[in-house]
Write a structure and sequence with these properties.
Blueprint (H helix, E strand, L loop, with lengths): L1 H21 L11 E5 L6 H17 L2 E4 L8 H14 L3 E4 L8 H9 L4 E4 L10 E4 L2 H16 L3 E7 L5 H17 L3 E9 L4 H14 L5 E3 L3 H13 L7 E5 L3 H8 L5 E5 L1 H16 L7 E3 L2 E4 L7 H7 L9
Parallel strand pairs: 1-2, 1-3, 3-4, 4-5, 5-11, 6-7, 6-8, 8-9, 9-10
Antiparallel strand pairs: 10-12
Helix pairs in contact: 2-10, 3-4, 5-6, 7-8
Length: 328
């Protein structure tokens, strides 16, 4: 009898172990989600703020993020390779700021076909198959830039638009918002140049800006649609002795741009909320992966910062955010 009981105990133990193997206990820890966050570039302050917001969301939601993108914001091939590598690796989701609204479509569709969902941030993609688009209303940003510049000029004068890059949906929308608003609302303002591009770096933008200032010596106002074009134009204005004399509205910020705003060399910066954009990009992806409903379009907001309002706590945080506790 003792032998029979012993065999039954062994069999029961074996069956219990098999059952635990095929059906783990409810208390077992779930696999930690891994989210790839892919910016357009990694050098501008804007992307550092996006990164910091993504880190905050990852810590709060107990997920892992992997931050990787091209060094320069014109390296489409490198960004495509980054996406493809993460697809091969089999991450749980991708949060992507596409460098080009067309060129990134095939690799995004490939990720989705392999059951890796994609959230688009910052700049739109010519597809409707992504989970959500988390970004500034970029057209509105251009509208705000046009109205600020028109206010500074009293509704009349000659202005320059130094564009960013062909294929960049976010800045193309800003440029369209700027030009269309001037045309509709301020007929007394003449756009004397709008066909020059300053991408991919501030150095290239500086050379384009210098040429424009040499060509249009009587220009009254200037608008630039991103950080690199704004900084490149600022340098050109400084080096030609025209900083502060020509009314200048830019986009995004850095320590140097904030100083120029304070010194009266820049007369307005259209500011996004990049920290919030990075945070919401990751949060939206995690919500989707956990079966929660998410919005198809999330507007992260934009506003104009001027010398008059830049010292308020809210505007200071936008202009020169403290990212040290998120980025070590």
């Amino acid at each position: 009898m003792k032998q029979t009981a012993s065999r039954r105990d062994v069999l029961a133990a074996m069956l219990a172990g098999f059952g635990a193997w095929i059906c783990p206990a409810r208390g077992a820890e779930e696999k930690k989600l891994t989210i790839a966050v892919i910016p357009k570039g990694t050098t501008h302050e804007f992307w550092k703020s996006i990164h910091a917001g993504a880190v905050k969301a990852a810590r709060e939601l107990n997920v892992e993020i992997i931050w990787k993108g091209p060094l320069k914001e014109d390296d489409r091939e490198q960004q495509i390779k980054v996406v493809e590598n993460f697809v091969t690796r089999g991450v749980d989701g991708i949060v992507l700021a596409p460098l080009d609204d067309r060129a990134l479509v095939p690799c995004v569709h490939d990720a989705i076909a392999r059951n890796i969902p994609v959230v688009i941030i910052d700049s739109d993609l010519r597809s409707d198959r992504y989970v959500s688009f988390v970004a500034t209303d970029n057209y509105k940003g251009g509208v705000l830039g046009a109205r600020r510049l028109a206010e500074l000029l009293g509704g009349k004068g000659k202005v320059i638009l130094l564009r960013y890059a062909e294929g960049s949906a976010s800045t193309m929308a800003r440029e369209a918002g700027f030009l269309e608003t001037l045309k509709k609302e301020f007929p007394g303002i003449e756009v004397v140049s709008s066909n020059q591009y300053g991408a991919p770096t501030a150095e290239v933008a500086y050379k384009k800006a210098e040429n424009l200032l040499l060509r249009f010596k009587d220009v009254d106002g200037i608008f630039c649609p991103n950080e690199s074009t704004t900084f490149g134009m600022l340098r050109a204005l400084q080096n030609t002795g025209r900083a502060g004399k020509v009314k200048f509205v830019g986009f995004d910020s850095s320590e140097k741009l904030a100083k120029a705003l304070k010194d009266g060399e820049i007369h307005g910066l259209v500011m996004q909320h990049p920290f919030y954009m990075g945070y919401m990009g990751v949060k939206t992806m995690v919500q989707h992966l956990r079966g929660e409903k998410v919005e198809k379009r999330i507007d992260t907001g934009c506003e104009v910062v001027t010398k008059e309002n830049m010292d308020t706590p809210e505007k200071k945080e936008l202009l020169v955010p403290d990212l040290s506790k998120w980025l070590e």
